[in-house]
Amino acid sequence: MTAAIALRRAGWQVTGYERAEELPATGTALGIWPAALRALERIGVDARAVGRPQPSGALLRPDGRPLAEIDMDALTARVGEPVRLITRPVLLRLLFDALPSGTVRLGAPVADLTALRAEYDLVVGADGVHSTVRTAAFGPRYAPRPVGTLAWRGSVPLRLPSGAEVWGSGAKFGYTPQHDGRTNFYAVSRAPAGWRPADDLAELKRLFGGWAEPIPTILAGIDPAGLLRHDIVDLRPPLPSYVAGRVVLLGDAAHAMTPDLGQGGCQAIVDAVTLADCLAEGVDAATGLAAYDRLRRRRTQRIVRMSRLAGRLGQVHHLVWLRDAALRLAVRSGPPAAG
């Protein structure tokens, strides 16, 4: 939807095809970093108005002892403004409402890339980690690969003053307060690709029930019906280009990454606005697409690698003390630049 808004402003006529029947009513919070906020602002979307600054937090051990402080005031001073927490439904509604009615066709999955190529001057594949467009354009070799961890996420009706990420041996648990009195949570554990527990909530309690508060209270508040679970994957090998003729990829379709740096959604937004900049009115499409690929591919593929490395730290179950020392050093050094 960001691409649709941006391309319309750049002079293109746009039709969006979305397989979901309707916009989601519930969902977890996204951390929207300043580069993405500024990209949205440039296309007339004020995401700051619907988000709250992410509060400071901490990295903790499972017994509650601190590993490192996450000073969001210092981060704000470094990057220019706060990271904003925005729930996925709120962000999607904001984008959807910024488009003329009918621009995005809900309940309209795309199965045939050939038909789209015949009908449209440009096909933008923004269809996620398991992208049909990517497979049709580049083949099955470029596919998401499991990294060896299983993740659960959701939210509970619990008001907390601050968030934290708790690092154990081969597992971690994070929680972040939302603006509506709920708490967003995620849990990650080493697991063989494709393995599924018989009971997700029971598995979470087995893995994390003995960790320090507020984790047991969060676990007690989980509604199993709203608990999401998936293998963590990223895109390997990296694509040789984000462009194939008149087909261009953005977001997870182009560079699916693990969530360890919190950059997946942000980079998709920046992709979309950059693409529209490169395809501004009067620019030859082939020239503009080549510029987009040049501007975004190396940068986003670097973030994919950095995210994978950060995720591997979370999988460590030997020499945890050394991992913790590296983690403290990383936090003191500050986050990577990710514009």
Automatic annotation (TrEMBL):
<protein>
    <submittedName>
        <fullName>Monooxygenase</fullName>
    </submittedName>
</protein>
<dbReference type="GO" id="GO:0004497">
    <property type="term" value="F:monooxygenase activity"/>
</dbReference>
<dbReference type="InterPro" id="IPR050493">
    <property type="entry name" value="FAD-dep_Monooxygenase_BioMet"/>
</dbReference>
<dbReference type="InterPro" id="IPR002938">
    <property type="entry name" value="FAD-bd"/>
</dbReference>
<keyword id="KW-0503">Monooxygenase</keyword>
<dbReference type="GO" id="GO:0071949">
    <property type="term" value="F:FAD binding"/>
</dbReference>
<dbReference type="Pfam" id="PF01494">
    <property type="entry name" value="FAD_binding_3"/>
</dbReference>
<dbReference type="InterPro" id="IPR036188">
    <property type="entry name" value="FAD/NAD-bd_sf"/>
</dbReference>
<feature type="domain" description="FAD-binding">
    <location>
        <begin position="242"/>
        <end position="306"/>
    </location>
</feature>
<keyword id="KW-0560">Oxidoreductase</keyword>
